[in-house]
Amino acid sequence: MQFKKGDGWKACYDETTDKFTAERSGVGYYLLYEITKETFDPLEDGMSDRDTYKLIGEGRRLYMDVNDRCGPPYTIIFDEDYAELCPWASVISSGRVWPAELTDAAVELFASEKNNREQRRKKREEREEREKREKRKKNGRDLK
After folding, report:
1. pLDDT tens across 7-23, in order?
2. Range of the domain at 44
3. Domain count, the chain
4. What tens digit of pLDDT does each residue of 86-135 get?
5. What per-residue string of b and e applies to 71-93 under the rule 16 or more CB within 10 Å gives b?
């Protein structure tokens, strides 16, 4: 794994998976992103927070934890595979994770989450299909 690090951010290129990921953190927030090579390459220590925010923020958000004192702390898991994509990250969580249905709704509603729509829709379909199978299985048992 190749790493780049600066004030409030860290980025990684994993040669085994050919994936680029990054984390941003500060007072009241922690975020994980899947980024591109085009984002990873120009990152360097000493960049302004604004520049790193612009670069890394263009990526696909994987995970977000907020504890900004503007309300109760919460965690949003945009991609359930975030730990596999970012095994190097020291993930921070409030322990109050949004339900999948609420995350799905937010991804559909907010333009800032357009990079997550395809992935979330696929996961939602898989989840709904699994729930249908479990319901049919349960109903089959109840009839015996």
Report:
1. 889 999 999 999 999 99
2. 1-98
3. 2
4. 999 989 888 899 988 888 888 887 777 877 788 888 888 888 898 888 88
5. eeebbbbbbeebeebbeebeebe
Contact 4, 14 (CB under 8 A): no
Note whether 104 and 134 are same-domain residues.
yes
Task: Return the closest-CA partner of residue 123 out of 69, 84, 81.
Answer: 81
CA distance 99 to 136: 23
Model confidence at 141, pLDDT cuts 50, 70, 90, reads: low
39 and 76 share one domain: yes
The radius of gyration of the chain's CA atoms, rounded to the nearest angstrom, is 18
Amino acid at 8: G
Q: Is 80 a residue whose pLDDT tops 60?
A: yes
- Cα-to-chain-centroid distance, residue 23: 10
- In whole angstroms, what is the distance from residue 130 CA to residue 10 CA? 36
Give the H/E segment covering residue 133: helix 117-143
